[in-house]
Amino acid sequence: MVQIYRWSIRIATVVYCFYMLFVARNYHFMALNVLLGYIPLELSFHYKKVNNQLFLLLGILWLLFYPNAPYLFTDFFHLENLSIYQGMNQIFGQSLSAWFSFSLLTVGICVYGLLGMATVFTTLNECFQRNILNKKWQGFLFIMIVNVLSSLAIFVGRFDRLHSVHLLTKPIQTLQIIFFNWSVNKVLFILLFTGMQFLLLAAIFGLKGLRLVDEGEM
User: Residue 36 in contact with residue 65, Cβ under 8 Å?
Assistant: First the structure.
């Protein structure tokens, strides 16, 4: 069942990216954004197959690409370009093509944003199982660090137009922009998005808890 689940996600991702890139009239950029947001999920699929040394390597790669998952939620502002919004009078157009574009964008953001963010718990659990972490406070600190770093990455991705791949192609310049260019707005943005990510992760954790309760009642 696990392999069926994973291959279903892989096939769905290919289909979605292909459609958005070559067929959809709007939002071609979602093909790249969803693909980047999917990478941390794919990396998490391979945790059980590797030893501790390779797991640490996968973990580093996961951390580099993880911010692409919560970054997807910033793509919601592209909805304003749709013709369904007719000014500020709260009257919505009934164009089915526009609502179809709305659906495509929303599905890409929510599905891959939440699935990608859920890998925080997958990675954390693997760290505990391998005894890399063994205290609850270490788990909380891990989540905090990941959220802060991903919020920082989202800021430079959205406003400085950097992607995860730039860490590989232009590492020095990218690190300078990330860690040495600061402003009040940058700090406030990081605080805001760190809080937002905590709430989204709490929702994901809550959904997992509901599933366990349902299983216990069966």
Answer: yes
